[in-house]
Structures are given as structure tokens and as C-alpha cells.
Amino acid sequence: MTLHVIRLELAREKDFPQGSSEHGYEFVAPLDATGQFDADEWKSQRKFCTVRRFWPGQEDETGHLIHGRGGRWAFSYDPTTDADDEPIFRFDRHVMRLGEYVSVTEHDGRQHTFRIVGLRLAA
Fewest C-beta in 10 Å: which of 28, 29, 36, 75? Predict the structure, then answer.
């Protein structure tokens, strides 16, 4: 089991018909040989499972990949509250492969779809 750095960029949507490489996330997560997220490995590696959200006109946000209420996985930027958590739709069921899609619900409640455009071993 190894940690991977996964880069997500905004997929096509109404305001961005070509998608956008300027809107997205880069995060670290443990993946098995098939590209599946490994929740058991996350338990022992969670301090290394970080996220950076990048969005034009906004400062980058940094936080962690967390397992929250109701068994949901999310990006969290403030450990003292869940108000800023950004749930990842069916995160534990995704296969992390280049070209696959992942949906994230942002703090404002809007869900966006992102494409996996980068996948490499963490240093």
C-alpha cells in the first residue's frame, strides 16, 4: 500500500464548457494496486492525507481527507468544525485512474465534477 498524490481539475460544466485546469484539488490518499482507496491504510496514514484546494481569485485552502459523520469522506480545512467540510461523492467506491471523474460538494452546497488528471506516488 502506498500513498498517492491525486490531482482533480474541474470537468465540463455550464460555466466551463471545456472544464478548467485552474479549479481543483490536489490530495494525498492510500490506494491499493487496483486504484481503490484503502480506508484501513488511511487510519494509520491519515496525518499524511492532505488536500490543497486551488481556485482563481481565492487563496489556496489546505486541509485533510477525513472520515466524517454517516460514513462520508470529505475534505476538511478546519478540524474544529464541519461547516467547511466538502463531501466527496462515493469516494470509497471510486477507482482512482487518469480520466475518471469524482464529484465534490463545496462549502456553498454546489456539487462539481472533477476529472482525475494527475496520479503519482507521494514522495
Answer: 36
